[in-house]
Amino acid sequence: MKSNMKSVESVSDKNYIEQVSVECVILGYHDKKLRVMVPKLAFKGDFWGLPGGFVYQDEDTDDAARRILQARTGIKDVYLEQFQVMGKANRNSRAFMDRMIEQNTELFNNPLAEGQRSRMDYDWFTRRFISIGYYALVDMNQVIPQKTDLDASIEWYPVDELPPMIMDHNQIVANALSTLRLTVDQKLNAFNLLPETFTMQEIQDVYEAIFDKRFAQNNFPKRILRLNVLDRLEKKYTGAANKAPYLYRFDKERYDRLLAEGDYPIADSPLPIST
Amino acid sequence: MKSNMKSVESVSDKNYIEQVSVECVILGYHDKKLRVMVPKLAFKGDFWGLPGGFVYQDEDTDDAARRILQARTGIKDVYLEQFQVMGKANRNSRAFMDRMIEQNTELFNNPLAEGQRSRMDYDWFTRRFISIGYYALVDMNQVIPQKTDLDASIEWYPVDELPPMIMDHNQIVANALSTLRLTVDQKLNAFNLLPETFTMQEIQDVYEAIFDKRFAQNNFPKRILRLNVLDRLEKKYTGAANKAPYLYRFDKERYDRLLAEGDYPIADSPLPIST
DNA sequence: TCAAAAGTGTTGCACCTACACCCATGG
DNA sequence: CCATGGGTGTAGGTGCAACACTTTTGA
């Protein structure tokens, strides 16, 4: 495992927790579609895989996810939720690694490669891993996908047009979406997909993208304003030949306060807004 | 770590995945209350802790949870859901272990104890652990709590009268309940808390226990029958001086079929029933 | 005949859907 | 003054909460 592996070489010495990994589903929104940031690996053979990594001994798993996200998104404060553990005994990267090595023999059969270390890294990587799935919600306007030196490319793919990914990564994305749909009414986290301020139509479009379903245009504002967590700001003059829409901002402090005061007992909050 | 530790001695040789544990919240229902099965440890000092354990290299995490559950409940087929990962870097049992050893010096300062192994086990146990939380839903009528040789007692506690447990275990129970409340309408798993057949009043009582909230008596049957997953059986003559209620059975096959056919897209299923 | 609990019907309210209509803006 | 899209109002339907009522059973 030469050159390209250099950046993660001696991975077995890195003071990681063994056999535990973190996988990140980075979700963004643009042009009425939810999108996932997916890197393509810098090897021959068209391998796509979710951004992932390992957990240092002295690091919260949340912080590990944040570190991995920052490398690809460049931003530090990311909305993050842990949503699932992949814990199957036969869950390992051996099939993928073998396919990958087979199609990149010139890299891996190099007699100059540090044979011992390669073997150790191969064994380390292909053990059974318990993987913790996180999803992140980011404002695509603030993020320029950053290639690491393991990536051939890194791009946003609409959730319904994902490339075939390695291992169980397509399934992981599907699970992340299910969880988002199930919990968005409790967590009110969809706003993280938009800029600081947004119009009513934009947030409605986001909800419609999340649920792949249209909502009534007159009720949506009523329902979402009833939550009492949006501030209405000045109007947004776009230069278009129509009425200027109002801008809104999600007041996270107010939401947290309502939660803390117990006025929002999760079981009977003034939700759902997504029915 | 003598005598009582014998049953888990040489834990470091057991081919477990390192620094990963599983904690189980075993939920039952009786007398209008949700209850949790909580063992009390067989040491001086009143230590309660959730049933937990470790994951073998060749074992699914789900199966590890099942194995741990079977030891305490005696039953093999248990409804199980993974709901959270505790991943804080400072999450370890050192504070608990030190308190426990302090109050049980006669066991741990015994010069006959195998000093080396004790030390190794102490170090193994008190490392930082990433813990996977599962909750189980069981029919209390089918379960007799089984003490393992680590338990002084094992009992059902109402969720609102739990003893103070070690580490973050009280918080884990709270999170399990939040998850149950959030997902019960999608998973329709509350039936696992009752026997095979049950009356309408019983399942309503279960929902009321889960949500700590009353539901309208006339609407509840309508809503839950609308789901089209309950079979109405013969009446149940109890000998009581009142009308005999019908018995119902949850038809899991029908539910699975509806899910598989896509008639129940999770996002807009004919739910919720718990509003 | 009565008490107890199961089960059903009625009324009012809240919210949702569908549709129509008004408003602000720039050309 | 018109086209465009934001924003709001109305009418009909559905479902839920509260309450009252009927039914079934054993004593």
Q: State the CATH class of the largest domain in chain A.
A: Alpha Beta
Per CATH, which architecture of the largest domain in chain A? Alpha-Beta Complex
Question: What would you call the shape of chain A?
Answer: elongated
**Regions of chain A with pLDDT < 50 over 5+ consecutive residues?**
1-8, 264-271
Strand content of chain A: 15-25%
- Discrete helix count of chain A: 8
Most strands sheet of chain A: 6 strands, mixed
Radius of gyration of chain A: 21 Å
What share of residues of chain A is helical?
A: 25-40%
Structural class of chain A comes to alpha+beta
Query: What is CATH's topology name of the largest domain in chain A?
Result: Nucleoside Triphosphate Pyrophosphohydrolase
The count of DSSP E runs of length 2 or more, i.e. the number of strands of chain A, is 9
Largest inter-chain interface? A-B, 35 and 35 residues
Mean pLDDT figure of chain A: 87
Distance between the termini of chain A: 51 Å
Oligomeric organization of the protein chains: homodimer
- SSE series of chain A: EEEHEHHHEEHEHHEEH
What is the CATH homologous superfamily assignment of the largest domain in chain A?
Answer: Nucleoside Triphosphate Pyrophosphohydrolase
Query: What number of domains of chain A?
Result: 2
InterPro entries (chains A, B): NUDIX_hydrolase-like_dom_sf, NUDIX_hydrolase_dom, WH-like_DNA-bd_sf, WH_DNA-bd_sf, WHD_NrtR
Pfam families (chains A, B): NUDIX (PF00293), WHD_NrtR (PF21906)
Protein name (chains A, B): ADP-ribose pyrophosphatase YjhB (NUDIX family)
